[in-house]
């Protein structure tokens, strides 16, 4: 099925707002652990430059996100919901090494998913301090992004 909304291959930045029940811990995680540049903020929210996209953490008491549902993908339990970014191959490996050095508690450690198959990709999953699941992935061949 073709979509009338896929006009060209130039990507527009997305905006994603997520709930956090501890603004200070979440702000520190996105600033220090992921090393994202902070933008505007208030007492209840903080903008971050999420690899060229706008990620906003919004304070919401008792988000109760811990204990997300998961679905099996390539023999791993992938948390639902989750969000993330597709990085170039070298950047993904650099980030995986940095997060490993920072002792991130991965829920799915960095590995190559669908190895040798269509859609082969590097992936890793972890959770922010407020229970939001993140996935960072990369394709050696980005043309495989939507390959069947």
Structure keywords:
single chain; 148 residues; 2,3-Dihydroxybiphenyl 1,2-Dioxygenase, domain 1; 2 domains; 4-stranded mixed sheet; 2 helices; disordered N terminus
CATH class of the largest domain: Alpha Beta
From the N-terminal CA to the C-terminal CA, the straight-line distance is 14 Å
Biggest sheet overview: 4 strands, mixed
Portion in helices:
10-25%
CATH architecture assignment of the largest domain = Roll
Structural class: alpha+beta
Overview of the molecule:
It is a single chain. This protein folds into two domains: 7-61, Roll (2,3-Dihydroxybiphenyl 1,2-Dioxygenase, domain 1), CATH 3.10.180.10; 70-148, 2,3-Dihydroxybiphenyl 1,2-Dioxygenase, domain 1. Helix content is 16%, strand content 41%. It has helices spanning 23-33, 89-101, and strands spanning 15-20, 37-41, 45-50, 53-59, 69-73, 76-80, 83-87, 106-113, 121-127, 133-138. It has a four-stranded mixed sheet with strand order 1-4-3-2, with helices on one face. A four-stranded mixed sheet has the order 7-10-9-8. The chain has a two-stranded antiparallel ribbon with strand order 5-6. The chain is globular and about 50 Å long.
């Amino acid at each position: 099925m073709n979509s009338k909304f896929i006009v060209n291959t130039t990507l527009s930045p997305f905006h994603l707002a997520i709930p956090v029940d501890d603004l200070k811990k979440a702000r520190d995680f996105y600033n220090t652990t992921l090393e994202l540049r902070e933008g505007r903020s208030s007492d209840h929210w903080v903008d971050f430059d999420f690899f060229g996209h706008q990620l906003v953490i919004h304070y919401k008491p008792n988000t109760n996100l811990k204990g997300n549902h998961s679905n099996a993908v390539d023999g791993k339990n992938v948390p639902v919901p989750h969000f993330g970014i597709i990085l170039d191959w070298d950047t993904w490996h650099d980030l995986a090494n940095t997060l490993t050095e920072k002792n991130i508690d991965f829920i799915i450690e960095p590995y190559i998913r669908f190895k040798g198959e269509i859609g082969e990709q590097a992936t890793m999953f972890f959770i922010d301090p407020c229970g939001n699941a993140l996935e960072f992935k990369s394709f050696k061949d980005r043309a495989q992004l939507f390959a069947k």
